[in-house]
Structures are given as C-alpha cells and as structure tokens.
C-alpha cells in the first residue's frame, strides 16, 4: 500500500499511553483540516490505542504501516 | 500561541484528552482570572481545584487569620497556618499545587469603595462569603460591572448555589430582594455546619467557573440549586429576573453600592 504524503511527522516512540495520544491531539489542533499528520508510535498498546483515540475524536486514520522500529499512523485532520 | 511544556502536557493530559477541552480549552484556563471572595469553607475547595485545573490567575480576598475552628472545613489552610492571614496560606497552598498559577492575595475586606476596583481585574467572581452584607455587595457590584458570578452558601447540612450572568439571567436580588434582618438567619458560627457541605457546594461553584471559562455546558443561570446533605437530595428552583429588581432591572433603584453592615448594624 502506498503511504500518504504527510504534512508533518512526529516520532512518539518511547512515549507511553495516553501521553502519545495527548501529544498527537495537540499537534492535530495546530493543523488545518485536510492536512495529514504522520505519527510514529511503539508497536503493541500504542499502535492499538492511538488510532482508536484518533477516530473517537473524529479524525480519519488513512493508513497504518509497520516501519523502522515502530508503527506509522497517517491521520487526516478533520 | 505559546507551546505547552512537557510538564504541562503531562499535568493537564486528562483535560486535554477531553474532546470538549483539548489544548484549546486548557489554554483558556491558563489565561483565565478568577476571584475568590473568601478563602473559607467554599473558597477552599474551589481554590484547590481551580489551581489544580490550571486557572492561571486566582485572586483571593480575605482579611481574616486562620483559626482552629476553620480547619474542620477550610481545607486550604493547615494547622501550621494558625494565626496567619488566610489569603497568604491560601496563596501558598494553591501555588504549591501548581506552579502555573499566580495567586494574588487581597488582604482586605470588600467594601463599597474598593470592590469595583478589585473585581475589574478578573473574568469571573466566585462568592464564598459567609455573611449577607458581603453577599449583597458582591452581587450588586458584579451586576454593575457585568461580571459573571457564582454564588454559593451553606448552613448546617444544606447549601445552595446559582450562577449569575448579569443582563442575561436573574441576580441574587431577583431571588432574595433584600438582606434578612440582622439575626434572622443564623451564621455557621451560631448554627454549625457539617464540614463536607462546604466541599460539595464550593466544588459546584468551581465547576460553574470552569465551564464559564471553557464556554461549556449548561450553567446554573436562572436556576437555584438546593442541596440537602442529610437526605442527600438535590432540588432546583427555576428563578426569573424580576422586572422590579432593585439592581438588575431596567430601572434600578440601587445605583450605588451599599455597605450593609454600616447601614443596618449587621456584623459579619
């Protein structure tokens, strides 16, 4: 699957739940609707929890990919 | 827009996670200025939680010193504070909880002469006073200045709270037009109060203040909430603006602030 182009990327590997989501949310608040944020989180709990929170808040998860030492979440800000 | 520090992100994470608050709401809290009238039973729990919530500027008006009989409910103050000015122990307690909070201590009694200058610097007034002269003075001044006001009062096992949005909803005088005659209603000093009652009502007031800052939810404007801790009931009365309200109607008869204690000899 082709990964979407991200307007911004943040690396939150090593950041535990729920702080990884809090930091993701703060970054999304600064972005315009339609822009894409790429977040890199640890596999396991964070890779399951962050996308769930993203969607609960009404944003779109465009893609989830396994990359170098983490999971890349591509989020379209609504 | 200043960025949050790492500590702030962690400290306020449970607020930021709330869809209704977020970083945007937390910034509003940090920018907000709330005045506590009294650092007593009601002001204590309200002050502690407002400080913890990150309300950036909190003013405290109180001219009393901490007494042993206060400590059963006035949780801002500790045994080691006995004899110290309440507004100073309140300041230390609130700033100790959260270094983001600046507490301004007003070590004085509110009077018709000073109240408008003091409330001018704040967005919201939280009345935790324990006497009628102050309560009416605060109501009248907030109406005249157009300041949102959270009212609370307690006695024995009971309490009440309402939120006054001048020009939009009823004020305290719409509900109770005049102070009761001196001695008609006992004070907590005379009649006692179950300490936890102060916590319940003070935190209802703090909740209203936080919601006003965030622009959230339904306020207690036009509603008088009555709490009875003995039966554990909450009731509410719908209250309306009075066309003939002496202070908030179109043709007020009270246009200057009144110091009732001088007027009718009632002592706080």
Tell me what the structure shows.
The complex is a heterodimer of chains A (78) and B (268). By secondary structure, chain A is α+β, with helices and mostly antiparallel strands. Chain A has a single domain (8-76), classed as 2-Layer Sandwich (Translation Initiation Factor IF3). Chain A is 29% helix and 32% strand. Chain A has helices at 19-29, 45-56, and strands at residues 8-11, 36-41, 60-67, 70-76. In chain A, strands 1-2-4-3 form a four-stranded mixed β-sheet, with helices on one face. In chain A, a hairpin with a 2-residue loop joins strand 3 and strand 4 (70-76). In chain A, helix 1 packs parallel to helix 2 (45-56). The model of chain A has no long low-confidence stretch (mean pLDDT 95). By secondary structure, chain B is α/β, with parallel strands linked by helices. Chain B has a single domain (32-264), classed as Rossmann fold (3-Layer(aba) Sandwich). Helix content of chain B is 36%, strand content 17%. Chain B contains eleven helices and eight strands. Chain B has helices at 6-11, 13-17, 22-31, 43-53, 86-97, 115-119, 132-145, 172-175, 188-191, 195-214, 260-264, and strands spanning 33-37, 57-61, 102-106, 124-127, 149-155, 158-164, 223-228, 233-238. In chain B, strands 3-2-1-4-5-6-7-8 form an eight-stranded mixed β-sheet, sandwiched between helices. In chain B, strand 2 (57-61), helix 5 and strand 3 (102-106) form a beta-alpha-beta unit. In chain B, helix 4 (43-53) runs parallel beside helix 5 and helix 4 packs across helix 10. Residues 262-268 of chain B have low confidence and may be disordered. The chains are: A alpha+beta (78), B alpha/beta (268). The interface between A and B is small, with 12 and 11 residues.
């Amino acid at each position: 699957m082709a990964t979407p182009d991200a307007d911004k990327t943040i690396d939150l590997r090593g950041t535990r739940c729920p702080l990884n989501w809090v930091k993701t949310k703060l970054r999304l608040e600064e972005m315009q609707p339609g822009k894409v944020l790429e977040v890199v989180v640890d596999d396991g709990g964070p890779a399951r929890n962050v996308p769930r929170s993203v969607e609960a808040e009404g944003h779109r998860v465009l893609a989830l990919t396994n990359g170098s030492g983490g999971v890349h979440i591509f989020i379209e800000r609504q | 827009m200043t960025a949050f520090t790492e500590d702030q992100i962690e400290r306020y994470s449970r607020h930021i996670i709330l869809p209704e608050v977020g970083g945007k709401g937390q910034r509003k809290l940090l920018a907000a200025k709330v005045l506590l009238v009294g650092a007593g039973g009601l002001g204590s729990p309200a002050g502690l939680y407002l400080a913890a919530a990150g309300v950036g500027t909190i003013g405290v008006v109180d001219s009393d010193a901490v007494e042993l009989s206060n400590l059963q409910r006035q949780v801002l103050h500790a045994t080691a504070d006995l004899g110290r000015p309440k507004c100073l122990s309140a300041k230390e307690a609130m700033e100790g909880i959260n270094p983001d909070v600046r507490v301004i201590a007003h070590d004085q009694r509110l009077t018709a002469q000073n109240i408008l200058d003091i409330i001018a610097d704040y967005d919201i007034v939280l009345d935790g006073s324990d006497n009628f002269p102050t309560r009416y003075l605060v109501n009248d001044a907030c109406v005249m200045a157009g300041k949102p006001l959270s009212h609370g009062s307690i006695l024995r096992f009971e309490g009440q709270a309402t939120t006054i949005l001048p020009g939009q909803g009823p004020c305290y005088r719409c509900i109770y037009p005049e102070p009761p005659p001196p001695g008609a209603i006992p004070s907590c000093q005379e009649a006692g109060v179950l300490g936890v009652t102060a916590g319940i009502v003070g935190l209802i007031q703090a909740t209203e203040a936080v919601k006003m800052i965030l622009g959230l939810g339904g306020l207690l404007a036009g509603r008088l909430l009555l709490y009875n801790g003995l039966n554990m009931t909450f009731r509410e009365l719908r209250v309306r603006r009075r066309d003939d309200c002496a202070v908030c109607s179109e043709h007020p008869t009270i246009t200057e602030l009144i110091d009732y204690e001088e007027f009718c000899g009632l002592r706080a």
